[in-house]
Amino acid sequence: MSARRLGLPRRAVSQILLTQLAIAAGVAVLATGLFLAPLSAQLDDQAMRRALAIAQSAAADPALAAGVLSSEPSADSPVQSSAERIRRATGAEYVVVLDLDGIRRSHPSADRIGLPVSTDPSDALAGREVMEIDEGTLGRSARGKVPLLAADGEIVGAVSVGIAYDSVRDRLLGAIPGLLAYAGGALAAGALAAYLLSRRIQRQTRDLAFSDIAGLLAEREAMLHSIREGVIALAPDGRIRLVNDEAARLLGLAPDATDDCAGRPLEDVLGAGRTADVLSGRVTGRDLLTVQGPRVLVANRMPTEDGGAVATLRDRTELEHLGRELDSTRGLIDALRAQDHEHANRLHTLLGLLELGLHEEAVEFVTEVAGVHRTTAEQVTEKVQDPLLASLLVGKAAVAAERGVPLRLAGSTLLPDRLVDPGGLVTILGNLVDNALDAAAGSTAPLVEVELRAEGRTAVLRVRDSGPGVPAGRREEIFTEGWSTKQPKAHRERGLGLALVRRLAERQGGSARAGEAADGGAEFSVVLPEALR
Predict the structure, then answer these.
(1) What is the reported pTM?
(2) Regarding beta strands 458-465 and 522-528, do their DSSP bridges make them parallel or antiparallel, or are they unpaired?
(3) What span, in angstroms and rounded, lies between the C-alpha atoms of 441 and 107?
(4) Of the segments 163-167, 207-211, 225-229, 410-414, which one has the largest average pLDDT value?
(5) Residues in contact with 445: Cβ distance below 8 Å, sequence separation at least 6, in sequence order
(6) What is the mean pLDDT of residues 141-165?
(7) Which residues pair with 209 in a beta bridge?
(8) Is 212 exposed, middle or buried (0-12, 13-18, 19+ CB in 10 A)?
(9) Are 382 and 424 in contact (CB under 8 A)?
(10) How big is the chain by its Cα radius of gyration, in Å?
């Protein structure tokens, strides 16, 4: 049943305040009741013990026992005089002395002297002390009964003392106002604390109703797990609060990781690396690129009011692949344009030779030009038998020639057509050759050398250039995402090529390292175990 049907306020803060006030009032009433119950029993016990103490004091008077033995029951007997004196001195309701027959020898009402007592005196006459709350001729009282002993120790009667129960009840009732005052003070303090807490909750919940909060949570869950953008929420201490389905997919986590990751540190889930640094805020900026497994991701991080953060992830893998294909296409277009220009020059040269009648020279010229291109292609396909890699190297050779950088194969190059993943090796080789051409283009004696060979089932790739090289202290840093010495292109970010090279190598259980070439410049080595069938 809803709060509306019950007539309760709809706002969450009002419902919380009423609930807290009801709890505080209930606790105050319960505490008061729990205090009063033992207080009543305690007052009863005190009254009975007081009555017993008066009876013991009276029975200790030898004259009282002697009077029972030597006098008859009467209003002016010494027993009555002694009992009344004790009653007035102690404030007891009555002090009754009885003999062994249960006959009263004293009583506040003189006309009851000589009559049997109204309650059973057998326990006291048998030598036992008694404490009780009982009803007698004078009403309800707290009683104490003790045996009355003669000088020789024989029981000659008993002494019964009563404390009026009204006095006990008056003490209890007198304690209630003070107790209620304390309970009221506690209730007021609880109400104030409840009000202050409810105001804080009101600010934190933006004065929403419980139904609104439940609806927002349901909508949040539906939205987070249905959008095609990864979302990770982090607590102020760096622990994961939430991972939606798309984020788990992009980060390569298990399908059920959305629940298992909650409460765990970010580094425990993702491991150390740039992705964890970007999501945790150690690397700042907008649209930061990171590589997680085979994916290129764009991450943005927004802090929250409580010190945590929400990070979003977008997949840019396909866009990066398209960008690299565009780079390759532009490179091929540049190579074709250069070849077209060179072909036109050669045709003009051939036409001039023919017009001058130098037919033999024209034949030699055509033979030489055709032989150079055929030789280059034959050399590549002879040593690199995989068609994809061979085509890549032939195309890169044309681009290198246009840029004035010789591209040659090392003498030890020999790679059979047994690659398990030729596409991955094409990506690795293409990135390394492009970087080498850029580095060697500005050197005095430009050169790029490629070595591809097989060692059993292991493929070894080395690319050397005549550029300035890589300082020893930065040979690991260059493999991190975003590191680059080049200006970014319009369609994509820089600093991903070498990072992808290392990720592809490590995914196949291999390695990628940077070093120094024998003649100066840089040398990049990639080792791929189990790369050949």
Answers:
(1) 0.42
(2) antiparallel
(3) 131
(4) 410-414
(5) 466
(6) 86
(7) 11
(8) middle
(9) no
(10) 53
Using CA atoms, how far residue 533 sits from 268, 416, 457, 460, in Å, is 36, 10, 7, 14
Closest Cα partner for 480 from 463, 495, 493? 495
Q: Which residue has the tokens 């109204």?
A: 118
Tokens of residue 416, six digits? 């059979």
Q: How far apart are CA 397 and CA 47, in angstroms?
A: 115
Q: What is the dihedral of CA 383, 389, 395, 400, to 10 degrees?
A: -70
Give the separation between CA 93 and CA 143, rounded to whole angstroms: 10
Burial label, 260 (beta-carbon count in 10 A; 0-12, 13-18, 19+): middle
The pLDDT tens digits of the residues spanning 350-373 come to 777 777 777 777 677 666 665 545
Residue type, 164: A
Instruction: For strands 407-409 and 448-455, give the pairing.
Output: parallel
Tokens representing 109? 């009402």
Alpha-carbon distance values, 302 to 228, 231, 236, 284, 307 (Å): 18, 11, 12, 10, 10
Q: What is the C-alpha separation between 77 and 63, in angstroms, rounded? A: 12
Look up residue 145 and give its amino acid: K
**Pick from 307, 271, 301: which is nearest to 283 by CA?**
301
36, 139 Cβ separation under 8 angstroms: no
Cβ proximity of 148 and 64 under 8 Å: yes
Q: Using CA atoms, how far apart are residues 161 and 495, in angstroms rounded to an integer?
A: 104
Phi/psi region, residue 273 (left: phi>0; alpha: psi -120 to 50; beta: rest), is left
Partners of residue 136 on adjacent β-strands: 139
Q: What is the mean pLDDT of residues 448-452?
A: 90
Pair of tokens at residue 462: 């080395």
In angstroms, rounded to a whole number, what is the distance separating the alpha carbons of residues 321 and 86? 112
* Helix residue ranges, H only, 205-316: 210-224, 245-250, 257-260, 266-270, 274-280
